[in-house]
């Protein structure tokens, strides 16, 4: 597992969850500190799900603290990804933010961070079939809503 690449993806995941760059940076750093403390006792196939589980739990913990959502610019070096351009589209972003949290998380893991389906199963507790079915339903909904808004299929 390439930790540099995962650092950027975990940061993006945390930012998407907390929507505040400094908080996302703090959570990302804490995620990797906890990961390194436990890494030696993990099987290599469980490292990625464990990393996302730590990040997810820290984001939930931050949310429970009642931190306020603040916007800031994301460092372009960390956030550039061809998929990110798709997410950055205002219409799509607004539609995604209207989705329930679990659906937002699924899209982020699957498309923005390219997390393998097997790892998403471990992170979310859903079966492979449920993930495929739920993803297809979400994408169909987004496509329909975009078409209503005048966007083409291209």
From TrEMBL:
<keyword id="KW-0805">Transcription regulation</keyword>
<keyword id="KW-0731">Sigma factor</keyword>
<dbReference type="InterPro" id="IPR013324">
    <property type="entry name" value="RNA_pol_sigma_r3/r4-like"/>
</dbReference>
<feature type="domain" description="RNA polymerase sigma-70 region 2">
    <location>
        <begin position="7"/>
        <end position="67"/>
    </location>
</feature>
<dbReference type="InterPro" id="IPR013249">
    <property type="entry name" value="RNA_pol_sigma70_r4_t2"/>
</dbReference>
<dbReference type="Pfam" id="PF04542">
    <property type="entry name" value="Sigma70_r2"/>
</dbReference>
<comment type="similarity">
    <text>Belongs to the sigma-70 factor family. ECF subfamily.</text>
</comment>
<feature type="domain" description="RNA polymerase sigma factor 70 region 4 type 2">
    <location>
        <begin position="91"/>
        <end position="141"/>
    </location>
</feature>
<dbReference type="InterPro" id="IPR014284">
    <property type="entry name" value="RNA_pol_sigma-70_dom"/>
</dbReference>
<keyword id="KW-0804">Transcription</keyword>
<dbReference type="GO" id="GO:0006352">
    <property type="term" value="P:DNA-templated transcription initiation"/>
</dbReference>
<dbReference type="InterPro" id="IPR039425">
    <property type="entry name" value="RNA_pol_sigma-70-like"/>
</dbReference>
<dbReference type="InterPro" id="IPR036388">
    <property type="entry name" value="WH-like_DNA-bd_sf"/>
</dbReference>
<dbReference type="Pfam" id="PF08281">
    <property type="entry name" value="Sigma70_r4_2"/>
</dbReference>
<dbReference type="GO" id="GO:0003677">
    <property type="term" value="F:DNA binding"/>
</dbReference>
<dbReference type="InterPro" id="IPR013325">
    <property type="entry name" value="RNA_pol_sigma_r2"/>
</dbReference>
<protein>
    <submittedName>
        <fullName>RNA polymerase sigma factor</fullName>
    </submittedName>
</protein>
<dbReference type="GO" id="GO:0016987">
    <property type="term" value="F:sigma factor activity"/>
</dbReference>
<dbReference type="InterPro" id="IPR007627">
    <property type="entry name" value="RNA_pol_sigma70_r2"/>
</dbReference>
């Amino acid at each position: 597992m390439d930790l540099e690449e995962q650092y950027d993806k975990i940061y993006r995941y945390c930012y998407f969850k907390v929507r505040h760059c400094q908080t996302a940076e703090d959570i990302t750093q804490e995620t990797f500190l906890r990961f390194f403390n436990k890494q030696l006792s993990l099987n290599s196939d469980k490292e990625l799900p464990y990393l996302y589980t730590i990040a997810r739990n820290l984001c939930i913990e931050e949310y429970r603290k009642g931190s306020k959502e603040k916007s800031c610019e994301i460092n372009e070096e960390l956030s550039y990804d061809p998929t990110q351009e798709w997410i950055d589209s205002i219409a799509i972003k607004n539609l995604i933010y209207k989705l329930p949290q679990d659906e937002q998380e699924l899209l982020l893991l699957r498309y923005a961070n390219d997390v393998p389906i097997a790892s998403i199963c471990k992170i979310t507790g859903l079966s492979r079939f449920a993930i495929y079915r739920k993803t297809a339903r979400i994408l169909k909904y987004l496509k329909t809503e975009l078409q209503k808004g005048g966007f083409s299929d291209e």
